[in-house]
Amino acid sequence: MGVNEKNIDAILEAYPAKVKRNRKKHILIKDSTQGRQELEANTRTIPGIITNRGCAYAGCKGVVLGPIKDIVHITHGPIGCGYYSWLTRRNKAATPEDGKNYMTYCVSTDMQESDIVFGGEKKLTRMIDDVVEIFKPNAITVSATCPVGLIGDDINAVAKAAQEKHGLPVLSFNCEGYKGVSQSAGHHIANNGVMEHIVGQGDLTEAPAKYSINLLGEYNIGGDGWEIHRFLKDIGYHVISVLTGDGSYETIKNAHVADLNLVQCHRSINYIADMLEKKYGTPWLKVNFIGVQSTIDSLRNMALYFGDEELIRRTEEVIAREVARIEPIMEQYKKICQGKTAFCFVGGSRGHHYQGLFAELGIETVLAGYEFAHRDDYEGREVIPDIKPDADSKNIPDLNVEPDRKFFKLKISPEKAEELKKTIPLGDYKGLIAEMNDGHLITDDLNHYETEELIKLLKPDIFASGIKDKFIPQKMGIPSKQIHSYDYSGPYAGFNGAVKFAEDIAMGFVSPTWNFISPPWKDKPLLEGSIQKEGH
Amino acid sequence: MLDFTPKEIKKLTGGVINPAKTCQPIGAMYAALGIHRCLPHSHGSQGCCSYHRMHLTRHFRDPIMASTSSFTEGACVFGGGANLKTSIKNVFAIYDPDIMAVHTTCLTETIGDDIPSILSSAEVPAGKVVIHANTPSYVGSHITGFSNMTKGIVTYLAESAKEAKKEQVNIIPGFVNPGDMREIKRLVKTMGIKSIMFPDTSGVVDSPMTGKFEMYPKGGARVEDIRDSGNSKLTIALGSFASTDAAIQLERKCKVPAKTLKAPIGIKATDELLMALRNSFVREIPSDLEEERGQLVDIMTDTHYHFHGKKVAVFGDPDIVIGLTEFLLSLGMIPIHVLTGTPGNAFEKEVKAMLLQAGLKANVKAAGDLFEFHQWIKNEPVDLLMGNTYGKYIAKAEDIPFVRIGFPILDRSVHSYMPVVGYKGAMRLIEMISNALLDRQDRDAREEDFELVM
Q1: pLDDT 10s digits, A493-519
Q2: Tens digits of residue pLDDT in B220-258
Q3: Which residues of A touch B41 (CB under 8 A)?
Q4: Which of A128, A515, B33, B412 is least enclosed, having the fewest CB within 10 Å?
Q5: Is this model's pTM higher than 0.90 or not?
Q6: Closest CA in chain B for residue A72
Q7: Is B263 helix (H, G, I), strand (E, B) or coil?
Q8: Does A203 contact chain B (CB < 8 Å)?
Q9: Which helix (H) or strand (E) holds B94?
Q10: Which chain A residues touch B79 with a CB distance below 8 Å?
Q11: Domain A56-180 has CATH 3.50.90.10
Q12: Which 8-state DSSP code applies to residue A424?
């Protein structure tokens, strides 16, 4: 089907030999006859290749910590890092009862040359003092940037001293941009800190209501989390905390009492999901609330976990109600989208999650991939024991947790867990490759050159990716949809999200603007009139 | 909205809250995009490069290409020489630019990578060029970065062939939109004077939709023209913060006299630009431009009652804010809060002098932030706010009419195509200001006070 190895080799031919050898391992044609296919991932970026990747600071402060709304997040560094992560990811947050929502503030130590020379610890201390006085937040985080590690500022000591002085949690994160090879290192660093210093700090000893859950790895982009919350509530679930979209210190600190953790974005939050299980005895379930069928499957799996007849009945009721409501609307968009093909190259989870939704609209994903996922996100968690840490990721510390003496409680028996694992993805994730159809491409750390060549080769009808490459296919006349920022639309999750997504995608296809790319004089000869006359 | 910003002025001691600037490399990247067939290269961790491309893309809504050295922790210890050399090899092999323009980040500046010596041992294909500028993020702002790269362009490329200078002018336009660069070129062309503008991002970041993606669009200053800038009779640097250093470097290197003017925003600054060109090239001002100017004055007079005496708060990049403040004064408006995030005493000195001449007192600050700026507004409310997109939060919090100007504008389109410089740009500014004020008057008017003609 479609592409073959020769097509890929022809594209890689333009590379210097070393680059070619490297990149070949990051591109795969799905072939289910081969059994498990291996894809190299989470390795260092090739210099000069024009990657889409960002850094560990972006993964830590920008993605995981930033959305926690009642915490003031201080960037310790020159101004850029704080500035670029200020309101640029659309993790929406509603102001809680205590009024503490700091999303519109960008707080930076704005390091100057003298801070690089003499150290910036004192300035950071003063900034924490300023923040406590002005904002009176529930907690403070300090995120390190590139030069901080190099000049040896001890942000951990500064944070510890400030915590004692002010009597409020001050958490430090060594997420210097050069750590690891991508945003992924930052997720890990943030997970460690959130687990160590926030989760379990609350005083709840047991779940406050039946069917208490946490939603992990959901950042409420364009209101996704709120849409998910809507139907979970209707079914009867009690959401204790969301990590971290619209999340707060006050809710996350009680995450330990939930009966079940749902994992939406596996890449960014699986560390916490694992640690919550070890430390507090709470299992996690992989869910996917993008796409109608995925949402339905996820809800049914959740109901199976709790195994409660009433909950199962409510689940089916809500599913039936929602599907009946949205199906006729989806139908009109399907007519527009049917038979089209898509590229879906996004961060570390959406490259997989959106395929089902595309398929529901009749769009086949012919290329999918991630900027910074690991092999387990591609191949499934069963490969984790085979993943060898390399020099670039060895220095990201693993946090070792033990069962918590005060709060550990097995939420379900090991026997029941084993039984459930046969039918639902409890503590498991099968990865992206499993979902792809044969003959389609999976690409890791796709760069500009390959993007352009693969567009020429596969001629997709829609290109789903981020802002840096949005306008490239668009110049070629190919509709382009941002799957990070949703092109400032959303929500795209859940039932209402599926409708909104369908509407936006269909709009991309039918917009009359595409009809004007070629000027009328391009295909009309200048002398048309007179030539006809002469021939007459 | 911004509920934690107190009215009582709270001075920060440990940094900034809600900056009115960003860091150097994005300015250098923008300047490098103003060279034809150039690929900007960020020597540092890849996060910077992604952020800078992302931010420029959002402002211009066009592809912004740049490569990066993609540092890992190992490179921080051993230096980034190998990363840069590998980058250069890969960039030319895969992306084939004519020129690579390398800038640095806080990472590479802190570890002290010596770029010239790395470049001297790098494999650069014949006929290709690699230039560089040091752009430490912990010094100045994005404007400093633009200035440093523009100076780097001169250092590496400008040449003077002979003593006799050509009848041509170099224009360094400053950190402005491609629409502004087009307008400045049009003014100089209308004067009948040959010009070399660099950097020139027109045709690069405002490229047309043709159904084809061009990695290196038609626009950008040609390397051979930049080389020839050493033979020009005069360099006009528009905006002292963004452009003077490069002009002085060109004077030092190639003996081309440098003249710094204000960014030509508003009537006075545009007059000064035309007068400088007229004097140096002995040209009559063409009637077309005189007509344009007359139209502008006509509009200013026609509509003065829309804006006269209104209090304004202005923030943004120093050269733009200086020009804009002067224009607001010539409209009879009262700028009472004027701020830039970029450090530099010259800003405060120049703005204060203008205000003094107009008999006004105001809050004026360089190296300020929007947290402080907002506190000023809480203490002395204004009728109009002018600045980049980040101002919309203050505008909403305090319910102030808002005009978007400068960089970045992330929530509206078309702005980068349309000039704010020259007489035409001044007309556009008046339209924007009047619209903002009159829309507000309409919104707030009681039904019986709602007017048809205004």
Answers
A1: 999 999 999 999 999 999 999 999 999
A2: 999 999 999 999 999 999 999 999 999 999 999 999 999
A3: 48
A4: A515
A5: yes
A6: B17
A7: coil
A8: no
A9: helix B81-94
A10: none
A11: no
A12: S
